Structures are given as C-alpha cells and as structure tokens.
Amino acid sequence: MTAADVYAILPLIVLGGASVVVLLGIAVHRSHSLTLILTLTGLVAAFLLLPLVSIEAPRQVTPLLVIDSYSIFFSGLIIAASFIITVLSYSYLSQQRGHREEFYLFLLLATLGSVVLVASTHFASFFLGLEVLSVSLYTLIAYSRKEYGIEAGVKYLILAGLSSAFLLFGMALVYSELGTMKLAQIPTSLSNPSSGVSQVFVLGGLALIVVGIGFKLALVPFHLWTPDVYQGAPAPVTAFVATISKGAMFALLLRYFTVVNIHNYPSLYLAFVVIAIASMFIGNLLGLLQTKLKRLLAYSSISHLGYLLVAFLASGPLAAVAVAFYLVTYFVTTLGAFGLITIMSNSDRDAEDPEDYRGLFWRKPWIAGSFTAMLLSLAGVPLTAGFVGKFYLVTAGIGSALWLLVIVLVVTSGIGLYYYLRVVVAMFASLPKGSTIAPAMRISPHFTGALAVTILVLLLFWLGIYPTPILRLIESMVTGFS
Amino acid sequence: MSALIFFFTFALIAVGAAVGMLFSRNAIYAALLLIVNFASVAFLYLSLGAPFIALAQVTVYAGAIMVLFLFVIMLLGAERLPPSQELPWQRPLGIVLAFLLLIEAVYGIVFRVNSAATLSLPVVEFATPAEIGSALFSTYLLPFEITSVLLLVAVVGAIVLTRAEGGARRRALVSQITQAVATEVPEHKAETPEEEKELV
Q: Chain A: nearest CA to B147, how far in angstroms?
C-alpha cells in the first residue's frame, strides 16, 4: 500500500478510528451526549473527506477495494443515512434505561462494514464487509433485550449465519473454477475458452451467491425473517436494517452483476425475474394483512426491493441511474417513516399498534402530516420523492422492454396504495368517545428526533418537486463505474 | 496412486463424520464427530503441501474452538437435543434439493475430467508461516485490519448482550443483606437463603 492508497481509503480509516475513540470514550467517561458528539464528529469527518478523496478516484486500493465515483456516491449516502439514524437513536435511547452508549459504537462499525461493501471488488472484502455489518446488527437488534428483541436477534443471527454459509459456498465454487476471487478478472477467466471452465459450477456458485445477497435484501424466497426482525428491533435499528444494510448490498449487487454480465446467463436472469415478480406480489399482498405498523413497513420494503430489481434487470446507462436515484428516495422515505415511529415510541414499547395512530391528526397534526407524506411517498404518489423514483424505474424498465416486470410493478403498486392509505385514514379518523389515550401516545419528541424528521420531510418534497440537481449528481457519479 | 488412496481415505472419513454429526441426536457426539471431520480435512491440507494450514486447522478448529464448544454444551447441560420439530414438507424438499446439488456436482466433475485442465502442483515452499505472514501484512493488510474490526464487534457485542441486568440494584441488595446480617443475626438467618437465591 502506498501513501496514495492510504489517502484514498481515509474515510474508512476515519470511521474505524472514530469507533475506537468512541470505545475508549465510553471506557473513560460514560456519557450519552458525549458519545453522541464523538459519533457524529466521526461521521461528519468521514463524509467531508469523500469529496477530497474523489480527486484520487478511480483508484484500486489493493486487490480488495476500489475507490471510484460509484463507491464514493454510495458511501456518502450510507454515511448521511447513518448520521440521521444516530440522531434518531439519541432521541430513542434518551427514554431507555440501562447502558446506551455502546449502541453508537455498533452503529459506527455497521456503517464501516457497509462502506467496505460498496467499495468491494474482491470476494474477501465482500465477505468481511458483510460480516462486520451483520455481527454489528445482531447486537443492535437484540440491544433493548426486550422479549421480541431477543427473538428477533436470534432469528437474524441464525438466518444470517446460514445465508453467509451459502454465500461462502458459492464463492468457493466460483473460485474453484476460475482460480480468482478478484471481480475484475472473473469475466476474462470466463470468456477464456482454453481454460476448460465448467459453466455448471460457475452458474451454481453465482446462484448460491445470489441466495446470500437475497437474504440481506429480503427478496422473496429469502424474506421470512423480515417481519419478525422489523418488529422486534428498536425503531432506529429497523431503519438501519431497512435502508443502509439493503442499500449497501444492492450497490454491491449492481456492481458485481454488471461486471459479470447477467444478460449472458439466461437462467440466472430468469431467476432474478421470478424473484422480482414474487417480491412485488408477496410484499404488497401480505402487507394487506398486517395491522402492526412495523410489520407493514417490512412487507413494504420487500416490495420496494422488488421494484428496484426491475431497474437492475434493465440494461443501459439509465438503469444504474434509476437504481441510485430510487435508493436515495427509498432511504429518505424509509428513514422518515421509522424516524416518526422512533419519536412516538416510549420506554416501554415502540409505537406500532393501530390504536397508537388512530386520530393522531387531531392531537399531533405535524407528526400525522409528516407521516402521511412519508406513506404517500412509499406508495409513489406525485409531488413526493417516491413518485419520481418509481417514474425512473418504469422508464428504465420500458427502455429495455421489460413489459412483464413493468406491468407487475404498476399493478402491485396499486395494491400497495391500499394499505398505506389505510394507515393515513386511521390517522385522520376521530377518536371514539370515552377512549383513553394509550401511554405510548403521550408524545414528547426529543428535539433531535424532531429535527431529523423535519429535514427528511423537506428532502422528500425537494426530491419530489425539483429532483434535477440530485439527478445531475447521480448521473455524473454513478454511470460508467465498471 | 498412494496419494489417491490417501485422499479417498481421509475424504471418506471427513464426509462420514460430517454426515454422522448431522444425524447425531447427542450434542457431545456431534461435537466429537466435528473434530474428526476437522482433523481429516487437516490431513487433506497436508497432502496438498500446506503443512502450516493443516496444523493451524488442528490447533485452532479441532483444538481451541471445539474445546469451547464442548465446554459450553456441558455447561448448559444440553447434551440431549430435543426431538426436532420440522415442517411436514421440509424433509422431502431437502432431500430433493440435496439430490439436485449432488447431480450438479457429479456432472461438473465428470465434465471436468474430459476437459484437459491440468492441476499445477504447488511449489515446495507454499504457504509457509513466513509467506502467510508477509501476505497478511502486505497484499492482504486491509482484510487483516477489517478482520480485527470484526473480532472487536463480536467481543464487544457479546459483552453488551450478556451484561448483568440492573447491576446497581443487585449491589444495593447485597449491601442491604450484609448489613442486616451484621445487625440482626438471629432473626435474619432463616431469611437469607431465600434472598441469596434471589441474587442468583
């Protein structure tokens, strides 16, 4: 490694260093606000370093990581989302008893794992980044150690371990055929006719890797953990699982399967089509049956990842832009929705029952209004970010003539609209006479949480009304990454 | 030829031990069979000319990790596994999928024999401790560091998740009891066992 290499990975070093500082800070002086400040400083420093680092881009740092504009864009997205989640966690943990400071350490380390994932160009960094992210999440999900939290943590631990085993097996099969774990060398080894490569093993290996990725993205045959984990984890952690963990994995998926051209493998392509259609249908249909809000958002996220696969399967330069822009809108909206759940939760439980939301508008109009905006954006109603994102997905799909997928996308979006609107209607319904307000309903949001949510609502409308600047940014950074 | 016999002997032992581990209903037997599996895989590494990896496999996996496994199983008294609760379609589906994977593997290997892929034998000094060390601290310095972060996460996570609930309350209770015992010895003698039980 040269000095320039070290310079290129400075954001990662800062994130790792910040976690050590936070760890030592907790050991010396246990203070909730001090830990928050240290964490936020680390995240801001890492974020501010990204534009400086981009001067050096694209740069291959050892065979493992590449610092190009693609990875810098997604690193920035991840770090910004992590910043919001940290602020929300402060608002959430202020009401909790027990040790709260270690929470931030795991947030930082999970962020580090995600940043490694989006810059990964080698199976080793893929696996290590994934494991750093997963192991941090085991702890975060079970952090509150309430009844459902432990259950969710154990479920995630076992299933994530299993999916990692699938992933490793797939990597081993690909390696045994191609003799390389470097992403850049895979296409050349594949197309080399004299090497006697068995396509069967490569295809089997890639399929097993897709299983491992599909678990993290909660795509349909691998989605069974999602509702339970979403329900059991503390609301800010659920936001992390729904946004950063999935976003980093999707960025990696797009990079890997653009280099290993997915259109060369009809069976794998077909598998992705089936997964996308199943995710869109099952996410939206099972969402109709849910009453708990966090479970509903779990099914919503399953369907959103299905929508994203439509753009992933489309080819051409628009596809990557559509994926990146949709991820931005999905991040803003999902963070906003879980942020609102966070500021409405109290020390006993997270606000997710239907009663918690009934008639919310008449007591907390701002919270109800923001929530309505988030839900409408998830449904993809015009003037919100979700609409523009979905518009780009459909455009990318039509551009590649993926008619079946586009039709399924439109139809299932229509189904999904129903359950989002059900929550909106409940919020505007009047309270039945003589009903008492549940304890979780006495909301006194911490100003940090309220601030974070306000920023997200403003971003939501900005992206929905005037998305041009962010689209320009994405077009200049995301295209032509391989 | 002798290399082939060596390979098949240990490969069969490894596969047999792994299958036995999966079917054993006793956790101790399963752990011991896993040790057999690790050890026979170590012999395969040895036959591939990687003595350092073979020995690391024996000391780290078959040694340290499995001792910890056995220790935890015995500590929890979880030798007998409960009868498995499986879904009705789980076993047939598993068998079909495993069979498909087996067919694929056999097909791949047969296909492989026809193509003239020559296996290049590793050089004599392959994977010596010095070589592994220099690789870890040059080309693979970055994953080495990320691995250390991974271990840090695992250690701190385990501590956070197993920390004692309400440590302050327990300490207060302990001091209360010791005070009570010191002042009113005869009255409290009968009560202390229950209170002590509470502490545990």
A: 7
Neighbour-count burial of A250, counting CB atoms closer than 10 A to its CB (0-12 exposed, 13-18 middle, 19+ buried): buried
CATH topology of domain B1-81: Four Helix Bundle (Hemerythrin (Met), subunit A) (1.20.120)
CB-CB neighbors (< 8 A) of A198 in chain B: 108, 111-112, 115
Q: How many CB atoms lie within 10 A of CB A69?
A: 17
Numbered residues of chain B with Cβ closer than 8 Å to any chain A Cβ: 101, 104, 107-108, 111-112, 115-117, 138-143, 145-147, 149-150, 152-154, 156-157, 160-161, 163, 165
Q: How do the domains of chain B map onto residue ranges? A: 1-81, 136-188
Q: What is the DSSP string of A347-371?
A: SS--S-SHHHHTTHHHH-HHHHHHH
* Distance (Å) of CA A371 to CA A74, A304, A362, A366, B131: 26, 18, 14, 8, 58
- State the virtual CA torsion across B55, B58, B60, B62 in degrees, nearest 10: 180
Distance CA(A61)–CA(A119), nearest Å, equals: 10
Nearest neighbour of A128 by CB, restricted to B104, B108, B150: B150
Q: What are phi and psi of A401, to 5 degrees?
A: 60, 40
Q: What is the pLDDT of residues A148-193, one digit of tens each?
A: 888 999 999 999 999 999 999 999 988 888 888 888 888 877 776 5
Residue B4 neighbours by CB under 8 Å, 6+ apart: none
Contacts of B37 (CB under 8 A, 6+ apart): B13, B14, B17, B18, B21
pLDDT beneath 50, residues of chain B: 116-118, 185-200
Minimal Cα distance from A107: which residue of B?
A: B153
CB atoms within 10 A of CB B124: 7
CB contact under 8 A, A132 and B140: no
In DSSP notation, chain B reads: -HHHHHHHHHHHHHHHHHHHHHH-SBHHHHHHHHHHHHHHHHHHHHHTT-HHHHHHIIIIIIIIIHHHHHHHHHHHT--BPPPP---TTHHHHHHHHHHHHHHHHHHHHHHHHHTT-PPPPPPTTTT-HHHHHHHHHTTTHHHHHHHHHHHHHHHHHHHHHHSPTTHHHHHHHHHHHHHHHHH-HHHHTTTHHHHHHHH-
* H/E run at residue A67: strand A65-67
Q: Which two tokens stand for residue A163?
A: 């999916």
ipTM above 0.90, yes or no: no
Residues A383, A461 contacting (CB under 8 angstroms): yes
In Å, how far are A294, A367, A440, A450 from A444, measured between CA atoms? 21, 11, 10, 10
Give, in order, the Cα–Cα distances in Å from A94 to each of A216, A325, A342, A448, B106. Answer: 30, 33, 11, 11, 58
For residues B122 and B68, give the distance between their C-alpha atoms in angstroms, rounded to a whole number: 34
Task: Give pTM, 2 decimals.
Answer: 0.88
